[in-house]
# Entry
Amino acid sequence: MHARTTVILTGTFTLVSCIAQESALAPEIVLQRSSQANRGLQTVEVHAFMLTKDKENDEKARLSLQGQLQHAGTELFAHITIDTQGESTTMFHMIILQDGSILITEPRQTTANTPYSTQSIETEEWIPLIPPTHQQAVEQFPLLDIQKQGIYITKDRGISLLRNKKHYSYATVMDNRFGEEFVIRGELWVDIHTFFTSRIVWNIEKEQQQHATLNIDVFSHNTVPPFSVPKHIRTISEEERQKLLERILTITPPFLQTLLEAKPL
# Structure
């Protein structure tokens, strides 16, 4: 019995040691190397979801995003669904290009939870929501350059396993870009071998009345085929573009609008 107990305790200690080890590098060095590694990314797959809860207006919503970034995170293709209080779900696709332009497909109601596919780039008609600025307006998406985003590490959690790979794990806070009434805390996971960002989590609270949780998982670094610019782009007037912008706002919950209008996460 004593030998069996010893084996169990030894196995448990070994498992815990593998799951959470002390970091060999200082967080500042990890962040620096992570930013450098992410700047060299060609493609990466991204899955994200945001849950918002507004006690003042008794509103709940969920935004889901599946897609990919390319060219060091300067371009994005995304399949987006917005579910408001379980009453209606709106789906559309979005592309952000290096010249600052944003293209979307026609938003539509849906009941099916279909996975994203870059085939929609070729099969669907795209609408120019934001025209190009004729310059590289998107330097790099925030999740790929942590050092420039007002993000600070509050605790080094050591080395932990994420998707069966070892990662540096940190507790973080963000500066008050939304205002003094917001508290923003989260997590950051960085692969110990490649230094690629693998996961970011944010918990955003406003005066204990409004709350949002944002989870971003990043994987398949440099293994996802790049997407191309759509060929089927509809020509619309400025009036039509404004109406489309207003339509997007109507399906976006108020608290989520507040967050999206601020500097991106």
User: Anything to note?
Assistant: The helical segments are 2-19, 27-39, 120-123, 238-250, 254-261.
